[in-house]
Structures
1.
Amino acid sequence: MAWAAADGEVDVDSAEAGLTVLLEACERAVEEIGSAVPPAQLRALLIIGRSGGLNLSRLAGALGTSASAASRLCDRMQAAGLLTRDRAAASRREIVLVPTESGRRLAEWVRGRRRAALGELLAAMTPDGREALARGLTELAGV
């Protein structure tokens, strides 16, 4: 699959096709969850878990939503036992969102399933393709 067009520009169509394969593999990996945890809650849980805990405005920014929408999402996640709201150690006025043990286990399970799915895709690629994809994804993660 060529990622650069003849004129040196990025072939966005090919890149999008590759991204679709990755996204579908990740979605299939966690289909067992079904509707028990809605995708928005799972996404928020993964963001919170990756940071170890963050405040509501940072979560809203990461989700690309308003603070009030993120707060309602967190209300539902708290009711489901996936997160708690704790006072920040540095500022008693700031509230920090922290995954519960159940939320941490779920996030770890999802990441493990995604890694396994990615591993299967990588195993089917050539060594050069694996190296290029890993390099590109690492660079993308730093953006």
2.
Amino acid sequence: MDKALRHFQKLKNGIVNDDELVRAAWRAVVGEKIEARARYRELVRDRIVVEVEDRVWQSQLNTLERQILGRLDRILGRSIARQIEFRIAIPRPMPQRADESGAEFRLEMSDPEARKIADPGLRRVYLKSKRLAAG
């Protein structure tokens, strides 16, 4: 990986910016286990922004900041950043599928007209309008 990063850095002449270099080197610098818990987000001037899972990871990685920066400098062959900001990531909800246990699904299965509608979006519109009309 280090060889690839050095070759990648040689290609820099305007094609690859510093943000892309740091992004490419991040996993090699911190390792797979830490990279799974601390995601590189962006390079802002001379500061690397990293999102971490919680305060424990934030605290632990703050103590390793100088070591991480030193290793990054060695891998890239020059100094790009002077500090790392470890931010606690905002949990993002995963997309949810309409599950078959929901009330809408039960209504769908009890309504023979709704079962005839193949398109799920149109079926929902039909059921919603039917509910509004009924009640």
3.
Amino acid sequence: MTTQTNTDYAAAALRISTGVLFLAHGWMKVSAFTIPGTVAFFESLGLPGVLAYFTIFAELAGGIALILGVGTRLVSIALIPVLLGATWAHSSFGWSFSNEGGGWEYPLFWTVVQGVIAVLGRGAFALRVPELDRRLGQFA
């Protein structure tokens, strides 16, 4: 049995909380905005509509993976482009996310958090899948 450190618990708190937020944001795109509405929003930004599907999948699957602690480093790195896209999408609304349309501070902060999670790793309370851990190596 390994001894958990404060860093392991902090990493777990960060990983799980952002996983929940990704899950909530992905589900909001499905249930509140609807998939066609999300596709239309992406297209209104001049982006291909198919990116909406990738974003929804990344947020839902990435959120679940983070909550479980599966492939944490790889998932966090993979979510950074999604968050940089959100930062860009909200950049015209100003700094503060409380502005109408949301500003770019929150997605940019969330981008940095994913970078921190990628460095820290999964921390405590993570689901261990030995074969996956072996295949992912340092990205587990």
4.
Amino acid sequence: MIQIGLTGWGDHDDLYPIGTKANQKLSIYGSHFPVVEMDSSFYAVQPTDRMARWAAETPDSFSFLVKAYQGMTGHTRGKQPYFKTTDEMYKALHASIQPLREAGKLKAVLFQYPPWFDCTRENVAVLRDTKKRMGEVPSVLEFRHQSWFTPDFRKRTLAFMHEEGWIHSVCDMY
């Protein structure tokens, strides 16, 4: 089944009556759409109490596609202002999404890699490690570098994603 949703629920003023407070927008958004890409998790791993509150504010059939923290996808270029180790970062993400998992509202975690994350052996190893760290959590992979889909690599990229259990996301940037 195809589900339509938007990136975030706070930036789409046409959905809300004039004067809608920020803390009312998610429940209104949830009456229009069945899923949302949670963009705030890209900028900071969200606290579990906030995730639990968001789960409670949405219909039972609603789900969240949680965007992985930018430090997990190389956007911070190695600088980790909030985490001392990679293990700590993944532990925080797993704790953060637990309320959504318990509520049956986690669609998946989206790993959106930056335009400089090209098709190399080193980056394939990063993806394998990431998928291993995510365990049974549904994980979506989105590339922004076209090298993954050149004629020489397209079939191998898709086979790799299938073998590793990644869900494929396509970004239309043009």
